[in-house]
Amino acid sequence: MKRLFLLVVFYFSFNSNEANSQSYFKDEYPKVWERAAHYSLAVAEVMPENLYDSKANPESMSFKEQQLHIVTNISFLTQLISEEKRIFYDRENMHNLSKKEILKILKMAFNYVEVLLEIMETDEVSKKIKFKNVSISKENIFYLLRDHMTHHRSQLIIYLRKQGIEPPDYIGW
After folding, report:
1. Cα gap 142→148, rounded to integer Å
2. Better-scored residue on pLDDT, 10 or 87
3. Can you name the residues that pair with 55 across neighbouring β-strands?
4. What are the φ/ψ torsions at residue 168 (nearest 5 degrees)?
5. Who wins on pLDDT, 22 or 1?
6. pLDDT tens-digit profile of 84-95?
7. 161 in Cβ contact with 46 (< 8 Å)
8. How far apart are CA 28 and CA 89, in angstroms?
9. Least crowded by CB within 10 Å, which of 34, 101, 146, 173?
10. Is the pLDDT confidence value at 165 over 80?
11. Residue 7 has what pLDDT?
């Protein structure tokens, strides 16, 4: 009987921690995403439009392509979360986009992630989905979104430095 009691206590303790974890994510991650998106936009705004087609080296994506790659990844990964494909720009016309249009596209994509965070039910956060033949939670897809954006934003900072442009101050916590 004592063993059964301990198992019941352990079960409820574990489930309570999972619920708290999901609630914590829903409360805290949107603020983290907002800061990361704001910093990414600040990096995009600093580069003059006439340098949006510049590359760090011939094999690299251009400054513009790096930003649109972030948006394309948001489209891909958010589809895993929402099961709805969002297209934020016409890839056929990407080379004709102005800096102003790219900033607008970035804002739309970043805002869409915020909307998904808002409308997602707390219990959905831990729901497992298949990603590259691995079972992963929706929460981890959100972390992957931010990690991918951070990776490419870091590359964009290198582009700025190669042009002699001071990157904006880091926006962290």
Report:
1. 10
2. 87
3. 62
4. -65, 155
5. 22
6. 999 999 999 999
7. no
8. 29
9. 173
10. yes
11. 47
Structural domain boundaries in the chain: 24-162
What pLDDT does 1 receive?
A: 59
**Pair of tokens at residue 60:** 């690299």
The superfamily in CATH containing domain 24-162 is dinb family like domain (1.20.120.450)
Is the Cβ–Cβ distance between 148 and 73 less than 8 Å? yes
Query: For 14-48, b where at least 16 C-beta lie within 10 A, e where not — what string?
Result: eeeeeeeebeebbeebbeebbebbebbbebbeebe
Per the structure block, which two tokens stand in for 169?
Answer: 């101050």
Report the C-alpha gap between 160 and 167 in whole angstroms.
6
CB atoms within 10 A of CB 84: 9
Both tokens of 84, joined, read 């709805």
Kindly list the distances between the CA atom of residue 50 and the CA atoms of 3, 29, 97, in Å, as whole numbers in the listed order. 71, 35, 12
pTM recorded for the entire structure:
0.86
Torsional sign, CA 41, 45, 47, 52: positive
